[in-house]
Specification:
mainly alpha
Length: 159
């Protein structure tokens, strides 16, 4: 029962607990902000056109432009901040997902480290290889023929 009377009720708690829900919520907020941004861009353009066309008697050609610049700059700053905000929302969604992946990887990494520590603490006992029987006082190894060891030695052996 989610209501405002419940002291444990938090409206975004479910969203915060799931990276997918967080991404959906942030995408919805970003979509709304981008729509607002389009309207603000249109407003900034129309304001610029109107303010630069507003001339007072005795103005030189640049006076209307100079009077319009502070307003244009303020609207430009709003648009810049809005773009930074939407980029930040997108970045937050990625970081939220990366956090959950890091939590899972941390648990796995700790298990692996513990296994490695146990292995180092109690190394498996190595058994010595059995000695092959010796024939005629010579230890013959079938993998060693005493011949050339590289292709460069072939010319010396065959000559």
């Amino acid at each position: 029962m989610n209501s405002n009377n419940d002291p444990n009720y938090a409206p975004l708690r479910d969203v915060a607990q799931s990276p997918e829900a967080t991404a959906r919520y942030l995408a919805d907020v970003q979509r709304v902000l981008l729509d607002i941004g389009k309207n603000l861009e249109t407003l900034a353009h129309e304001t610029r056109v109107h303010l630069r066309d507003t001339h007072v008697e005795g103005d030189r050609w640049y006076h209307a432009r100079l009077r319009a610049m502070p307003v244009e700059k303020a609207l430009g700053n709003v648009l810049k901040n809005l773009n930074n905000l939407t980029e930040g929302l997108e970045k937050s969604a990625y970081k939220r997902r990366a956090h959950d992946e890091a939590v899972v990887n941390t648990a796995k990494g700790r298990k692996e480290k513990e296994i490695e520590r146990q292995r180092k603490k109690n190394p498996p006992s190595l058994q010595a290889a059995p000695n092959p029987p010796q024939q005629g006082g010579q230890n013959q190894n079938p993998g060693y023929s005493g011949g050339p060891t590289s292709i460069y030695d072939l010319g010396r052996e065959s000559a």
